[in-house]
Design goal:
Mean pLDDT: 84
Radius of gyration: 19 Å
Helix content: 25-40%
Shape: elongated
Strand order of the largest sheet: 1-2
Number of helices: 2
Largest sheet: 2 strands, antiparallel
Length: 56
């Protein structure tokens, strides 16, 4: 069965409402010398800002 498609302004509005996400993994070294990792899902547009804030 075919999927019903929307065209025109309706389709454009649906497309813009979907957020593009990125998975960012930040590593940090703990007191024992081992590494721990933290995964976060954030908007694709704010990836660089997030990485800069979490750098050590």
């Amino acid at each position: 069965m075919a999927k019903k498609q929307a065209f025109g302004q309706e389709a454009l509005a649906l497309k813009q409402s979907q957020r593009k996400m990125a998975k960012v993994i930040i590593s940090s070294k703990n007191d024992r010398g081992k590494y721990s990792f933290k995964e976060t899902m954030i908007d694709q547009d704010s990836v660089k800002d997030f990485i800069e804030r979490n750098k050590k």
